[in-house]
Design goal:
Elements lengths: L4 H6 L10 H7 L2 H14 L27 H14 L5 E2 L5 E9 L22 E7 L4 E7 L14 H17 L1 H12 L9 E6 L1 H10 L4 H18 L4 E7 L6 E4 L2 E4 L4 E4 L35 E2 L11 E4 L3 E8 L4 E6 L2 E6 L8
Parallel strand pairs: 4-5, 5-6, 10-11
Antiparallel strand pairs: 1-2, 2-3, 3-4, 6-9, 7-8, 11-12, 12-13, 13-14
Helix pairs in contact: 2-8, 3-5, 3-8
Length: 361
C-alpha cells in the first residue's frame, strides 16, 4: 500500500466498476474515511518545503486539438481561460457563491520516482482540476467530470465513488498545506481563507450524471443515496462539506482550441446534480400489522424563540427559526459536527455553516 490510502481505495477494482462501486460505498462510513483522510494529511507532498508555488504554475503542454481521455483536463483549462478573461463568481444551489482562483493546481513536488515506489509521497497524486474560494472564505477543491451532451458512454472507471474518494484525498493534501496555499490565494484575490477544512465540489456535466444513472439500471436511487450519505458523514466527521453539482457549459463543443489553449464558448453554470429526493427509495406497501415508525422525528420550531436572520457568525440550536436570504424560512433540526447545522426548508434539509469566528476589526 502507498502513502495515500484514499487514492488506493479510489483505484480499487470494485470502486472503478459501475456494478461494484455501490457495494463498496455501502461498506464505507465517516469514521473509516476520517482515518484515511488523516493519513493523507500526514503524507501530503509539501511544495513550500521544496520552494515551489501552487498558483500560476504550468503543468503540461497546451493542447491544440481534442485528445482521448483528456476532456476533464481540457475543460479545466477552458474554464481557467474564462477566469483569466474576467469570469465572475458562480452562484451555487443553496446560496453560496464560488470564486475560481486557478486551474490545474499542482500538489506534487516532483514526478513520481520508480525507485521509491510506494514510499514516494508523489505517487498517484494529480493536479487539482480547479481551485476556488467560497463566499464564506473556505477553500474549494473542485473535481471536474465532463461528457459532451452527445456522449453515449462514460470513461472507464469514472464512477462517482472514485471521484469522491480522489477528491477527498486532494482536499486532505490542500488541508495539510493550508497556510502556504492560503497565503498564495490571498496574494492573488486579496481574501484570506477560513479556518475550516476546504470544501469538496464534484462538478460534472449533466450528461455524466445521466450516464451514471443509466449504467446502474434499477439501482440509481441506491448509489445516489449512498454517495449523499457519505457526503453527510464526511461533513460531520471530518468537517469537509461535499457539494454534488452539475456543470452546464454552453454549446457543443463547449470550448474551441486556439493558440493559447482551450477557450470556453460561453459562461459556466452550476446546478443541482439531480432532482431533490432522487436517492430516496420508493415506499413499500404498508403491512396490516402495526410497526414502530423509525423515521427521524422532525424538530418543530420553538415558538418561544423569535426567527433570526441567518449568518455564518451566529450560533444556532435545534428548534431555532432562521430566515435565509436565498432558501427562505427554515427550522434547525440538528447540530452536524464542527460548525455545521442541518436546517429544514419546507421538505428539504440543507447543511449550513454556523459559529464561525467573527472577523477581527
Amino acid at each position: 500500500m502507498s502513502l495515500h490510502p484514499l487514492l488506493d481505495l479510489a483505484n480499487d477494482r470494485e470502486v472503478k466498476q459501475a456494478k461494484g462501486f455501490r457495494a463498496v460505498a455501502v461498506d464505507q462510513n465517516g469514521e473509516k474515511l476520517e482515518l484515511l483522510y488523516k493519513s493523507e494529511v500526514k503524507s501530503a507532498p509539501n511544495r513550500e518545503e521544496k520552494g515551489k508555488k501552487y498558483l500560476g504554475v504550468s503543468t503540461g503542454r497546451i493542447p491544440s486539438a481534442p485528445q482521448a481521455g483528456k476532456d476533464d483536463r481540457h475543460a479545466a483549462m477552458a474554464i481557467g481561460s474564462w477566469l483569466q478573461a474576467g469570469g465572475e463568481a458562480l452562484d451555487m444551489p443553496g446560496g453560496l457563491q464560488l470564486s475560481l482562483v486557478d486551474c490545474l493546481v499542482p500538489l506534487r513536488t516532483a514526478a513520481p520516482s520508480k525507485e521509491q515506489g510506494d514510499a514516494d509521497p508523489n505517487k498517484g497524486v494529480e493536479d487539482i482540476d480547479l481551485l476556488g474560494q467560497l463566499s464564506d472564505d473556505r477553500l474549494a477543491i473542485i473535481r471536474l467530470k465532463y461528457l459532451a451532451p452527445e456522449a453515449t458512454r462514460g470513461g472507464a472507471g469514472d464512477t462517482p465513488l472514485r471521484v469522491l474518494l480522489s477528491g477527498l484525498a486532494q482536499v486532505a493534501m490542500a488541508d495539510a498545506n493550508r497556510a502556504a496555499l492560503g497565503a498564495e490565494v490571498e496574494a492573488v484575490t486579496g481574501r484570506g481563507i477560513g479556518e475550516e477544512a476546504p470544501a469538496l465540489i464534484i462538478a460534472a456535466s449533466p450528461r455524466y450524471w445521466e450516464i451514471c444513472r443509466k449504467r446502474e439500471a434499477q439501482k440509481g436511487a441506491g448509489w445516489i443515496r449512498e454517495i449523499e450519505r457519505l457526503g453527510r458523514e464526511v461533513a460531520t466527521q471530518i468537517g469537509v462539506e461535499v457539494f454534488l453539482l452539475g456543470l452546464e457549459l454552453e454549446d457543443s463543443p463547449a470550448w474551441t482550441y486556439e493558440e493559447e489553449g482551450p477557450l470556453l464558448s460561453g459562461t459556466p453554470k452550476l446546478i443541482a446534480a439531480w432532482e431533490s429526493g432522487a436517492g430516496k427509495l420508493k415506499p413499500k406497501p404498508k403491512s396490516r400489522g402495526k410497526k414502530a415508525d423509525d423515521t427521524p422525528a422532525i424538530v418543530e420550531a420553538d415558538p418561544s424563540r423569535p426567527p433570526r436572520a441567518y449568518s455564518i457568525f451566529e450560533s444556532f440550536e435545534p428548534g431555532d427559526q432562521i430566515n435565509h436570504p436565498n432558501l427562505g424560512a427554515g427550522v434547525v433540526q440538528a447540530i452536524m459536527g464542527r460548525g455545521k447545522i442541518l436546517v429544514l426548508f419546507g421538505e428539504e434539509g440543507k447543511l449550513l455553516v454556523h459559529e464561525r469566528p467573527a472577523p477581527s476589526a
